[in-house]
Design brief:
4% strand; mainly alpha; 103 residues
Length: 103
């Protein structure tokens, strides 16, 4: 009985992982292109922590700090306001700016 449960668990895990991979482009740059191949940017004011983690240079810790900042200060009017988030300096801001916009 234990073997059957283990096999079923493994199969379900495999199917789940396989279904998740279908939604992830093979090339990281494709995350930021629309269906016509044109560059796109994430709206910082509507993107949640999970979405922000898809940006190169933003990991879980920083994405949640950005989300907390937005909760405490409201929508941002300028990307330079990210300099107020602990962990984002001039260098990091320049690294992530091409992937973000404010709307």
């Amino acid at each position: 009985m234990k073997k059957i449960i283990i096999v079923i668990s493994a199969m379900l895990s495999f199917l789940f992982i396989k279904s998740m991979n279908k939604s992830i482009p093979e090339n990281e740059d494709d995350l930021f292109k629309d269906n016509k191949g044109e560059e796109k940017q994430l709206n910082l004011n509507t993107a949640g922590a999970e979405t922000l983690m898809s940006i190169p240079g933003i990991g879980p810790d920083l994405s949640y700090k950005i989300e907390d900042y937005k909760k405490n200060h409201g929508n941002l009017n300028d990307l330079n306001e990210l300099l107020n988030v602990k962990g984002i300096g001039e260098k990091k801001l320049e690294e992530i700016k091409p992937y973000l916009k404010i709307e």
